[in-house]
Amino acid sequence: MSFPPTASSAYSSGQTAFHRTELAVILSLYGRMVAAGEWRDYGISCLKDYAVFSIFRRTAENPLYRIEKHPKLRNRQGMYSVVGMDGKILKRGHELKPVLRVLERKLIRAVKD
Question: For the whole model, what pTM was predicted?
Answer without folding.
Answer: 0.79
